[in-house]
Amino acid sequence: MMKTKKSPRKAVLAQLGVSIAMLCSQASAETAYFSFVSTSGVRVAPHEFVFAVDDSATIAKLRDVVVNAGDILPLNQRIIGRIATDRVDYNAEWPFHLIPSTVRLTLGNDTETCDATPFMIEDNLQLVGHDFLPNAIWCPWSMRLVREVAAPR
Fold first, then answer.
1. What span, in angstroms and rounded, lies between the C-alpha atoms of 75 and 114?
2. Hey, which residues does 87 pair with through a beta bridge?
3. Using CA atoms, how far apart are residues 46 and 10, in angstroms rounded to an integer?
4. 106 Cβ partners below 8 Å, 6+ apart?
5. At a CB cut-off of 8 Å and minimum separation 6, what does 133 contact?
6. Sign (positive/negative) of CA torsion 32, 124, 45, 139?
7. pLDDT at 9 (0 to 100)
8. What angle do CA 81, 71, 151 make, to 5 degrees?
9. How confident is the chain (153 residues) per 10-residue block, as mean pLDDT?
10. Nearest to 38, CA basis, from 99, 118, 113
């Protein structure tokens, strides 16, 4: 029976590939938390809506807005995502949340059928995904990005 000997170069390349894959999965696993309020509401609690984002490109864009644009998203960009009708620890005041993996910035050409305030959603929670906010997609046009929020402990 003939044994094959692995070359040191192949072993190093294999290990490098595993390391890169681990780094990529760790980089994409970051979750950041942000909040917004109604443009007609108070600046923070009790009407603050906290949402989680785990897409690194969206996180970077939202951080840039919070740091450099004074919480105003450019007119051609809006937050969009899919609603889950249950509470999460980081947004306990509301009986629903945005699913972190679905949160993105859109170019603002979405239809009015996805626009609603958190109060409207709370009042019509049983209709989300049907006649109200079809497919549970929410694009809160009337909300203002306020800040990045510390991760829950």
1. 17
2. none
3. 58
4. 77, 78, 79, 80, 139
5. 83, 113, 114, 116, 121, 127
6. positive
7. 45
8. 60
9. 51 39 50 86 68 96 81 69 96 96 81 85 95 94 86 85
10. 118
